[in-house]
Write a structure and sequence with these properties.
mainly alpha; Arc Repressor Mutant, subunit A; 9 helices; 74% helix
Length: 156
């Protein structure tokens, strides 16, 4: 019983920092060397009390990313899969939040606005190379990258 209480407190602390997926919580408890039976009890309890909810976690993750660190759908999917979110939940959440967040193109345009100002003396090829690489590392598709750069170059 004392093991359970100890690891439950650690779980609450871990959740107080930010929402977690079920996999993140399980990995955390394993890292803290919690016994398997205690991990299962804690995960079950957290799920029952709605402290863990992979769908709510995924929705929150996507919305926060859109506001704070815009990423393309490809990278968002990878991040969520790494956190143990199933493909079904990923697809559902991305479809649901589509109206709440700017389009990928709008996010890409806003990300490169300042970069484009600093690159006004660069050639078109240099711009595509630098800005394209920047956006590609953030998970934007080539189609979105090309449209964002073309739009920025037209406005220059």
């Amino acid at each position: 019983m004392e093991h359970y209480e100890k690891y439950l407190k650690l779980s609450y602390y871990y959740l107080s920092i930010r929402n977690r997926s079920e996999k993140e919580m399980r990995d955390y408890l394993i890292k803290k060397k919690a016994p398997d039976d205690v991990i299962e009890r804690i995960i079950t309890s957290l799920l029952e009390h709605k402290f863990l909810n992979d769908e709510a976690f995924a929705r929150s993750w996507v919305l926060n990313r859109a506001r704070l660190k815009p990423k393309g759908k490809t990278l968002l999917k990878i991040e969520l899969r790494q956190k143990g979110i199933t493909d079904d939940i990923v697809q559902k959440v991305l479809a649901e939040v589509q109206e709440e967040i700017p389009s990928e193109l709008e996010q890409a345009k806003s990300l490169i606005a300042k970069k484009m100002e600093r690159m006004k003396d660069d050639s078109r090829e240099q711009t595509y190379s630098k800005v394209g690489g920047f956006l590609a590392r953030r998970g934007f598709s080539w189609d979105v990258i090309k449209k964002a750069i073309d739009s920025a170059l037209q406005n220059r």
